[in-house]
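Weekly structure sync, notes
Attendees: PL (lead), two postdocs, one rotation student
Agenda item 3: pending single-chain targets
PL asked that the sequence for the first pending target be pasted directly into the notes so everyone works from the same version. It is reproduced below exactly as submitted, 435 residues in total.
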Amino acid sequence: MDEIPHSDDVDNLEGLEEDDHQTKVKGKRSISNSSNHPTVQGKKCKQTGPINLYFMKDVDEIVKQRRAKSKGQFDENKKKLRDIVVEKFARWMYDAGIPFNAVKYDSFEPCIEAIGQFGSGMKPPSYHEVRVKYLKKELANTNSLLKSHEEDHAKFECTIMADGWTDKKGRTLINFLMNGPQGSVFVELVDASGYSHTADKMFELLSKFVYRIGEKNVVQIVIDNASCNVSAAHCLDLLLEDIFKISHLRKLHERALMVNSYIYNIPQVLSMIREFTGQRDMRFHVQQANLRKMFTSKKWVNSRFSKEAAGKRVAELVDGEKQSPMGYIYEAMDRAKEAIAASFNNNEEKYRNIFEFIDKRWNIQLHRPLHAAGYFLNPECFYSNPDIENDTEVMEGLYKCISRLVRGEDLQDKITNQLEKYKKAEGLFGLPMAI
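Predicted structure, written out during the meeting:
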């Protein structure tokens, strides 16, 4: 068998071409010095010191460069040397029961490169090192990586992804992940065997993760097509669809669809938009200011698209005045609840939990005196449903709003008197325009 030379004996693998006499002489010299230096197969181990750290190459960069190059041909000596190394490594894998696909991990090749740079005589990691010391280091690295993802999610928003599957024990498991600019991050594995087929429970589970990540940080939820997931998502769809039936919000929704379709159907305009949004995807509630900047910029004005009818129309929509939906929120929520109840044939048992989720969110975020006042003082809502004044929740909100905005009791009394005229549609309130 050919003896493997050490790097101290030869600077490169061409040294394997030395004759047997030279190899034997070097082998004897190494053995004679064995009392002073560790040996491997009769060869003196490479001695390292602090200076070696300064000359150690970046293993990740080396791997990156190697992958970018076309695969070259090893000479016969390198092949033999590699065969011995791979054989030893494979035997360790088989002995430890390590899955074969472990060699496909991105972290594997830099590991091999780092070992190669250390050279012969490396002391293997101990049980304690991999279990405690370096595990803590890796945990710190992982937490740092997760923190950067969370910062991106707060800045750019993210997508929640839920993927259900069944394991060998018959359990229904759901993987929850977050997807953002840097890619996907695993959040949690949930055993949903007990309630995975119940739409209400799935809705509760999805809501839990939305609250956990932060409502303002979530732009959408992507789920598989399991019937329970479809049902839970359908409840959300009904809520949104019914909200967009309100005339004011329907027009807003139609305008958003028109603008979005125009931008994404013309690559040049999409590229122009991304210059102003920092290469981010379109989210109207976040990118309003950047949209206006783009459609009023010289680049847009000088482009051929600004001269076309469709371009002019979209620019007008983007630059139009924003109208407040304050007076429609209460009505939208009422209609949404009615639609959800109707989808379950008004069987309260089936939608009670969903209403609890909606009410919880409503009470925390949207149930404000100002919204109640806007609902009451919206002629379109009030005169089509005079029973609003019998709604205790709405009336309490209205008077709380008046007491907060107007401190003087005399002025409060005058407002209360005018409210009576508003209720009876007297004076200007009786005009068809107002109604």
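Discussion points:
- The radius of gyration is 35 Å.
- The CA atoms of residues 260 and 282 lie 8 Å apart.
Action: rotation student to compare against the earlier draft before next sync.
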